[in-house]
Amino acid sequence: MRGSFNTEELAKAIRLNAVKMVNAGNSSHIGSILSCADILAVLYGSILKVDPINPDWEKRDRFILSKGHAGAGVYAALAETGFFSVDMLKDHYKNGSIFSGHVSHKGVPGVEISTGSLGHGLGVSAGMAYAANLAKQDHSTYVLLSDGECDEGSNWEAILFASHHKLANLTAIVDYNKLQSLKTTEETLALEPFASKWDSFGWDVVEVNGHNHDDLILALTKTSRSKPSCIIAHTVKGKGVSFMENKVLWHYRSPQDKEFHDAISELEDA
Question: What is the pLDDT of residue 98?
């Protein structure tokens, strides 16, 4: 079953929960979480065929967060859509908690695999999509990548594999916020012409505003029926908190004290 949530409200809730979680656990990556909150809200609120009551439902769509450092965003999305209590999120990044900093499937309903070492999610997702075709199953597989992890050669092997096997049941979404851990993607290892690269490898490619829910929904519901699809979502790192937006500092920094209260205030007033 697909969700029927107000995705704008869901995105706001994901952002608020994520800021609170990162603050309480004194953990990192809030900028990366905020940049993909709208993508997660659209996926869990409107696109993914999943069942919170039966997370292991055989006919469910598969979603892999390849950019595992944004795990708090997925935990928040799962909680807000009924997989477990929102109150459980307060234990994020604490000793003994199931909610580790990088997304984990251990004990967390709705998480397919643990990720965090970048460059592996797309390969796993391609394998899942291939296996579904072999088993004549009709579910879809979605994977969310960071732009920085597209530096990893393993991704390009998976891109070739998916194209060769015409995995039309596979959709890759790239959170293209153009900032990675220490500097811009352009300075680190230039990706452009990015869309042309995916296209030349045999994928159907579309570029969207990654914060426009209508654009995201349209792109995700109009994917190719003959080849794998790539949605390049142009986003803003730290989206929703003015002093975090487009600032590489917030890849690792944790909002504390006044920064935390200012961030919450901005998000609540949005």
Answer: 95
Query: pLDDT means per 10 residues in the chain (270 residues)?
Result: 88 98 96 98 98 97 98 98 97 94 95 95 98 97 98 98 98 98 96 98 98 98 97 98 97 96 97
List, in order, residues 6 or more apart from 82 with CB less than 8 Å away.
52, 53
User: Does residue 1 fall inside a structural domain?
Assistant: no
- Evaluate whether 9 touches 80 at the Cβ level (below 8 Å): no
Tell me 61's DSSP state.
Answer: P
pTM, entire model:
0.97
The domain total for the chain is 1
Give me the pLDDT at residue 185, please. 97
User: Residue 60: which domain range?
Assistant: 7-269
User: Residues 6 or more apart from 73 whose CB is under 8 A from it?
Assistant: 14, 18, 33, 36, 37, 40, 65
Q: What is the CATH number of the domain that holds 90?
A: 3.40.50.970
Query: What is the phi-psi region of residue 208: left when phi exceeds 0, alpha when psi lies from -120 to 50, beta otherwise?
Result: beta
- pLDDT number for residue 100: 94
User: Is residue 17 in a domain?
Assistant: yes
Secondary structure letter of residue 65 according to DSSP? E
Cis link prior to 55 (omega < 30° from 0)?
no
* Residues pairing with 234 in the sheet: 176, 209
Q: Where are the alpha helices (DSSP H) in the chain?
A: 7-25, 30-42, 71-80, 121-134, 153-164, 185-189, 194-200, 213-221, 257-269
Helix (H, G, I), strand (E, B) or coil at 198: helix
